[in-house]
Amino acid sequence: MQSTETQKKDYKKKKVEVVAGIIYCGQDILCVQRDKNKLPYISEKYEFPGGKLEAGESRTQALQRELMEELNIQVEIQDFYLTVCHEYPDFELTMHSFRCRIPRKIDVILREHIDLKWLKNNQLNNLDWAAADIPIVDKIMADEG
């Protein structure tokens, strides 16, 4: 029988790489709320929209695809913002975020989220964010305060 220490070493968490868009319309930033989930630490939390990279995609290609699939929007990706590595209880997440722009708010259609809010940067900390998104929120508030 293996010791607990050996079992811990043998167990490897799933690693997930995703992209996220910090989407601006004027001075407002798009925040979307996840649906209910069996994982309580991400269920109904707010996040910056995006998703997983597929084989052969660049990060920006993945972001454009995910935003079209989830929100029916095309954005202008301006620049890379921050990579966050976060360890959730069930998986390790690496999230690459990009600043983006959209000309109009009316284009957004929620396909995988249950709510959206357009907030000023100094209002972002009013939401219940997924843990991996908090470093991005903190950096936005520090940079643009």
- Dominant shape: globular
> What's the β-strand tally?
7
Structure annotation, total helices: 3
Q: What structural category do the secondary elements indicate?
A: alpha+beta
Concise structural overview:
The chain is of the alpha+beta class. Strands 1, 2, 3, 4, 5, 6 and 7 form a seven-stranded mixed sheet that branches. It has helices at 4-10, 59-71, 134-144; strands spanning 14-25, 28-34, 46-47, 50-52, 76-87, 91-101, 113-119.
Describe the structure.
Helix content is 21%, strand content 37%. The protein is of the alpha+beta class. It has a single domain (13-144), classed as Nucleoside Triphosphate Pyrophosphohydrolase, CATH 3.90.79. Strands 1, 2, 3, 4, 5, 6 and 7 form a 7-stranded mixed β-sheet that branches. A hairpin with a 2-residue loop joins strand 1 (14-25) and strand 2. It is globular. The model has no long low-confidence stretch (mean pLDDT 91).
